[in-house]
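Feature request, filed as a ticket because there's no other form

It would be nice if the structure record came with a short human-readable summary line next to the tokens. Right now we just get the raw output. Example of a typical job, pasted below so the devs can see what we mean:
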Amino acid sequence: MTVSVMRAGGVQVIPARPVLAGGAVVTRQHPERGTEVVVVHRRRYDDWSLPKGKVENGESVPAAAVREVLEETGATIRLGAPLDTVSYDLTKPARPDLSKHGKLLTGIKRVSYWGATATHVARRAPDHEVDVVSWLPVRAALGRLSYAADHFLLEQYLEQPVTTPLIIVRHAKAMDRKDWSKKDVARPVNAQGRKQARLLVPMLGAYGVEKLVSSTAVRCVSTLQPYAAAGKHKIATYPGLTEEEGTDDAKGVARIVRRVRSNAVRSGRPAAICVHRPVLPHVLEALDMAPATLVTGEFLVAHLTEDGSVHSLERHRPQV
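Raw output as currently delivered:
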């Protein structure tokens, strides 16, 4: 979509929105060869690269990375800590017939990458995009990849510590307080909130969330319910995380949050906690994280090392 028109050196430059994409360095453990990395051969370019692809309408970048890896390799994955973002120049004539008139469509493609582990690998038939999928030992993968950026991403991934995602979610959009006459803890999400909750399903799924924790408030439980139903997970609820109890009880909130953190790190099972705006500062303080604000439905992903410290942090929200 054109947002403005600039002229530089007599050339009409038409900027476009960045094209967003997601990809991953995906590994699995082979009983004899140790760590293997998946690389794909793209027929159109005759090159070897890491799996990646464009974000679809309404899709988040993490969910796109997971989907594209599945489509290109047959591997179901769980995202770990984020890696670097690689940008590509997409400058080209606005239309082939306009190139002689000095009109250029400019833009960039931004590919966000994560480290990831394969949880299941299925056979994939060759198609017009990817005709060969290879799982290779690290040294062989470095020798096979065609681009320096992919080499760097693989090496960057290998330097990362082992981490477990802990996700902090602010509940989805709820009915206005002025329109609700019953107890606030029973105030439900509205239509926008229900859509946000549905969109959270592939987003939380991208990180392989297994443990769900929530305040007992309906709007918090409802935020996690679609994901819980999709994966047949239970939601552990705590009155101490509600606005009524948690806002003025930082120590109580910290006890719950640190217990969730400890269990996630010890088990290696990713967890998500759904809370309220007034309780969020206590949650972040308990995790030794800097203060932050979240809009409804938005979440932080804290990638925790084996000692429970935060190695890296992400922020995402459903696009409603």
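Something like this underneath would help us a lot:
The CA atoms of residues 188 and 219 lie 5 Å apart.
The mean pLDDT is 92.
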